Amino acid sequence: MAKVHVKRGDTVAILSGDSSGKRGKVLEVHPKSGKVIVEGVHIQKKHTKPTQTNPQGGIIEAPGPIDASNVAVVCPKCKKPTRVRRQRQANGELERQCKQCGKAID
Length: 106
What we know:
Blueprint: E1 11-14, E2 23-30, E3 35-38, E4 43-48, E5 58-63, E6 65-67, E7 71-74, E8 81-82, E9 84-88, E10 94-98
Antiparallel strand pairs: 1-2, 1-7, 2-3, 3-6, 4-5, 7-8, 9-10
């Protein structure tokens, strides 16, 4: 299981791929595969047959997973994409900090 630098709810900037430069909110994190699902990025279309719950059927669009290495956390204070530093607090908990401005991300 790989350590992932993002959490659900973080705002991230996409660093590479078709959506580079976009920003979005992390919806899901999959640490075993090292992938994240970001709102509005890597939209995939899925064709569904009619069912009892969805009698119309049709095409459903949903965001797909992208590699966690292709996203950078956006600092809520300085609003820039940044790398994350983990700093141990006096009470023993780890706190994520922006490497550019040093402010806490969580």
